[in-house]
Structures
1.
Amino acid sequence: MKRELTKQEINHLYRYVNDKGVKYFDVQVELVDHIAAKIEERFHQNPAQSEAKIFDETLAAFAKNGFRQVVREKEKQVGRQYRRYFWQNFKSFFSWPKVFFTAVLTWILFEFLQRTNKSTLLTINDSILLPTLGIGFMYGMFLFFRNLNMPRKLSFTAYTSSGGAGIINAHFVVRAIIKYTLLDGAHYPFVAAFLLVLFFLMMVAALQAHEKLVSYGRTLYPQAFA
């Protein structure tokens, strides 16, 4: 009969990879599954060899290859998944039926900017910092407390490409668009409306991509959200 690891031995492997700096639960699961399978394989192939020695040699072999590299590869994988979600969400705003929303939003903003005088634009340009600071801070706190309340940390939920800091810094982009398309002697309300809507949709797509990562992590590892 094939020797399988006990629950106590599996827990020992979890403690081992955690002590080696692997803090993401999903990466721990993958590593422990791989290490356990290797140990059980060696148990079967070398029944006369000391089980303690097989444990030590197998763990030493994995530690030699380095767990940090595994974590970095996982982070790169999550980053690629995030970018895939981002472009899927962003492109959806230019396909039916969302393209109708994009067109209407651009038209409304164009009409507003075309009819707004320069003094009002200057006021808007000078007063957008506080709203973006407030929204960015609230969203950042939401992410912080959501991750804090998770019993286990996942690479999916730890990944943040924009988050609260991105929203806080959005006012720089908005001010630059207003300055170079509507102020300083320029008056291109349609260009301004198009660029502002484009940037807004990119921010929305970024936030949606992050939430999709969280949802994906919840599906695979619901125990991390218990």
2.
Amino acid sequence: MPVQIVVMGVSATGKSSVAERVASELGWDLVEGDDLHPRANVSKMEAGDPLTDDDRWPWLTRVGEAMATAEDAGRSSVVTCSALKRAYRDRLREHVADVRFLHLHAPVDVLEDRMSRRTRHFMPVSLLASQVATLEPLADDEAGQVVDVTPPLDDVVAAAVAAVRAMPRPH
């Protein structure tokens, strides 16, 4: 049975870097959720305006559809998506009932430092506070694991791969 993993968390947790390496290690498809944002969302974030739920719903639908396409084709995938709220994760589960989550986490000061040093990304440091305020950690009834992204990337990837391998398989 294919497995669909969402690498989630606020900006600067390394979702793209971790997901790319986890997908490579496991031999699974990679879907970059940021690539599925409508242009209007990207423009809004570039301008420093936080997205609203109304902005996010069409994007979450696209992310869910990408996972469903992989699952229908019998392929496992690793998908990047902030998935900050339970309602957003519920939207993803409308497309793939047994999606699993890797919640990447680090202290805010670590994330601010990372954001201030990165280039060519549409998310400004000014939006981190709104993401942190929006974040609803995984509930006990949500399949997933939290991975600390403070250590070096190789250690984070090893922990993420171990977490995925330890997750119960779908039926």
3.
Amino acid sequence: MPVQDVIVVASFKAKEGKEQAALAELSALLDPTRQEVGCIQYDLHRSTDDPGVLVFYEVWKSRQDLEQHLAMPYLQALLGKVDELFAEAPQINLLEKLD
């Protein structure tokens, strides 16, 4: 059985009035994350219905690569700002592709 990529959908809901700050913080993760060895895709999206909802769609080569990403200092710094910027805890979903 071939090894499948790890798919992640991570949703963030900015606090009212913190939408731009949240967008700036999440956008700052794009370049360094895309340079990580196991990163295949790392894209940030905004809801068309609610500009405070920001969603990452991520594809990683392996679970180990994802775990290394989660330990990166720039991601840990963001996690330290969750209470300040976001109305709720991020919703993280790991997915598998179905045929």
